[in-house]
Amino acid sequence: MKPLALAALPLCLLLAGCYATAASQGSTEVASAAPLLGPDEIRDLTPAEKAVLAKSFAAGLKDPDSAKFQWAKVRKAMPLDGSFDYCAMVNSKNSYGGYVGMQPFIGTVAVTKGKITAGVLGAVGESTPMYRDILPKMCRDKGLDPFIASL
Q1: How many domains, in total, are found in the chain?
Q2: Is residue 91 part of a domain?
Q3: How far is the C-alpha of 150 from the C-alpha of 75, rounded, in Å?
Q4: Core-most of 2, 25, 63, 84, by most CB within 10 Å?
């Protein structure tokens, strides 16, 4: 198993655990999604940031060299150091060598001294009807939308 994939496993479990916990608490209240960020609060990724994230996120896929990203915008107000959640779209080859089509993904982006330095792929959505809406809902719950592409 690749070291990066092994490092991403705790993140996936954490994300899945948080989602399952929120959905299974049996509360009668309907949880509302975080509000989406306004146009004045987001910006396009720079070409250098896209290159860093493409390499980092692709490493978590079955065929990293096949990854084609459709980037979403990021917050203008970025932490000086730390990380933030990020949702966008990716198309990559599956185990049979065929492209699966654009799928939403969620990952974590690392920031050092105000610059994007790495990313870890948390989960990629599925196109099967039973699972199709889970990952986009996770993104919306965080105020993110993988379907709004950056230019």
Answers
A1: 1
A2: yes
A3: 12
A4: 84
